[in-house]
Amino acid sequence: MSQIKDYIREHEGRFLEDLFELIRIPSVSAKSEHKPDMQRAAEYWQSHLKKIGVQHAEIFQTPGNPIVFGHYQKDPSLPTLLVYGHYDVMPPEPLDLWKSEPFEPEVRDGHIWARGADDDKGQSMIQIKGFETALALGLVNCNVKFLLEGEEEIGSTNLEPFCREHLEMLKADNIIVSDTSMLSAETPSITTGLRGLAYWQIEVTGADHDLHSGHFGGAVANPINELCKLIAQVQDKDGRITIPGFYDKVVDLTPEEREMIRQIPFDEEAYKKFLDVDDLFGEKGYHTLERNSCRPSFDVCGIWGGYQGEGSKTVLPSKAYAKVSCRLVANQDHKEISQALVDYIESIAPKYVRVKVTKMHGGQAYLCPIDLPAYRAAEEAVGVAFGKRPLGLRSGGSIPIIAAFERVFGIKTILMGFGLESDAIHSPNENLPLDIFYKGIEAVAEFYKVYPKH
């Protein structure tokens, strides 16, 4: 057994209790009554960083929740790693669906059960304990900075301004984050990309009031009909998005990435059965696992107008609405795409209705090259801990702050996450398998062993 495994085994009880102490603080950022708990959680991290050997740990107050910064300096001439995590959690409701108290962690059936067990207290603790293990064994050969915030679950509103204000203090060569998932414990993976997002509301107006469909039907345009026609023109029969210039900056998959995706265990029939659909649809020329993670998409998220009540009402509505979104991929700028859809819808809108497109919110996509030395170090480390070389895969979801880090600092983030789909993050009975907790710590310690040698 390696010295890293030996150290973790010797201290696993303490590591678990340190996590439990943090979990017991109900740091729910969405609820104002938990404001004192946000301060308590920040103070916990400040104290804990100092306890494990970080020379400097400080709390910075923001217009929202506190940010904790720590700095372990080995040698100014060595590379610097920035570790990011968040200590805020989602509200635990509905409480009646929990099998145990959400803020009183419990080990049951080989899992840690509690709000924050995975997202992101458990995963942040994996990072901190991995660093502690490597430090105790003399394996840390870089400078390490820690950035722990309390607003990730509500949009990280104050983090980007904080980073811009403290550029020199946060200066680093790479960022490492554990706030994503793996394919499974048997098929480990590292997230190499996140999709971006653009979101709009479309409003179509016909007459200035609802009309009798018998008296006016066929003579006046129906806003719902016209809205459907507009939406139908945004995507062709092959699943390609028709907005002019939409694909101009899309970064396609490399042959190596496509080969990694082909290695993922995937049963299309089981997938369809799970979703209760007869067939799948997506952009022509791409595999399902490429479509839902590596290619952009367009979706109607909501549509309404006219009579919605019981029975019938022969009405020609005055207005119709839809909320639509696009998931974006690397190099697509969400602001450019947002304006492009506005321009496109306005260009194809008929004159017999008034169309208003409102830009709502968005975020940039993120892509990490798999030949990056820090990625190779993470790949090697995860491979040692889990006994199998991890696949490098893009995720279909979005974490806007990761793209913000690249925008502000100009450096790449390694998304070395250890969550599983079965961890039920954001839901009742959130959990984290104990063996994943300890293997994650091992992987992080192994990372320090090989970083920055790659």
Characterize the structure shown.
With 454 residues, this protein is α+β, with helices and mostly antiparallel strands. The chain has two domains: 3-194 and 365-450, Aminopeptidase (3-Layer(aba) Sandwich); 196-250 and 296-363, 2-Layer Sandwich (Alpha-Beta Plaits). Helices cover 33% and strands 21% of the residues. It is built from 13 helices and 18 strands. A six-stranded mixed β-sheet has the order 1-2-6-3-7-17, with helices on both faces. It starts with a helix and ends with a helix.
Short structural description:
The chain is 33% helix and 21% strand. It is an alpha+beta fold and 454 residues long.
DSSP strand content: 15-25%
The gyration radius over C-alpha positions equals 25 Å
Q: In order across it, which strands form the biggest sheet? A: 1-2-6-3-7-17
The total count of strands amounts to 18
CATH classification class of the largest domain: Alpha Beta
Report how far the terminal alpha carbons are from each other.
24 Å
Question: How would you name the oligomeric state of the polypeptide chains in this document?
Answer: single chain
Mean pLDDT: 95
Broad structural category: alpha+beta
CATH T-level fold name of the largest domain = Aminopeptidase
Count of distinct structural domains: 2
Q: What are the segments in which pLDDT stays under 50 over at least 5 consecutive residues?
A: none
Shape by Cα distribution: elongated
Question: CATH homologous superfamily of the largest domain, by name?
Answer: Zn peptidases
Q: How helix-rich are the residues, as a percent range? A: 25-40%
Task: Please identify, by name, the CATH architecture of the largest domain.
Answer: 3-Layer(aba) Sandwich
Q: Biggest sheet, open or closed, and with what strands and sense?
A: 6 strands, mixed
Total number of helices: 13
